[in-house]
Amino acid sequence: MSKSPFITLARQAEYAEDVKKSRFIARAAPVNSAQEAMEFLERVREDQATHNCWAYRIGNEYRFNDDGEPGGTAGRPILGAIERQGVDRVMVVVTRYYGGIKLGAGGLARAYGGVASSCLRLAAKREVIPMIAVRLTMDFEHAGKVHQLTDKFQAKQIRQQYTETGVVVEMEIPLSRLDDFKIAAMNVSRGQAELTELAPDLSSNQERN
């Protein structure tokens, strides 16, 4: 899981262009897994088309497919477009209807890569900040520091509970700031705070449009 904020698409995008009588239709969408990428492919592929070529990148994971086009002329250029546009967790499918004029290997690569790039460049985007859920336990003496930590580290409180000895707060914080948060919590509590990372499925992503 990436700790750093990243840019992805805000919603599905589409862009079409004719290149020497061939029709190229690029469709892109945000995805969080390989399964989601393949499900998107099945939704948008057009079986009557000549080719449905695609590529996705999810963090360090990526795949691409030429769908019958000469090797390296479709899927790889689409992946290159994703990388050049600086977006992550994205799937792009480019559908081609052959128009009767051969484009050659270079022409195909430029067409697939160019249409994918235009689609991504024009698409609405959003910034995602990976978050992690934690449980912070503080004694009553230092409980007043919880809100100070929450504000400083852009945390979002999930729930708060008072016990006989202090307060227990579950919150989400930016994953990239987890180590600094641990240090700060120990400092303000004079080493008395307890911090537990919760199960991954309790974490989420904070979005900035």
Features:
38% strand; 209 residues; 6-stranded antiparallel β-sheet; alpha+beta; Alpha-Beta Plaits
Describe the structure.
A hairpin with a 2-residue loop joins strand 2 and strand 3 (22-30). The chain has helices spanning 34-44, 75-85, 104-122, 145-152, 178-188, and strands at residues 6-9, 13-19, 22-30, 51-58, 61-65, 90-97, 125-139, 156-162, 166-174, 194-197, 205-208. Helices cover 29% and strands 38% of the residues. The chain folds into two domains: 6-123, Impact, N-terminal domain (Ribosomal Protein S5, domain 2); 129-208, Alpha-Beta Plaits. The strands form two sheets. Strands 1, 7, 8, 9, 10 and 11 form a six-stranded antiparallel β-sheet that branches. A five-stranded antiparallel β-sheet has the order 2-3-6-4-5, sandwiched between helices. It contains five helices and eleven strands; from the N terminus they run E-E-E-H-E-E-H-E-H-E-H-E-E-H-E-E. Helix 2 (75-85) runs parallel beside helix 3. The model has no long low-confidence stretch (mean pLDDT 91). The chain is rod-shaped. The chain has 209 residues and is of the alpha+beta class. The two termini are 21 Å apart.
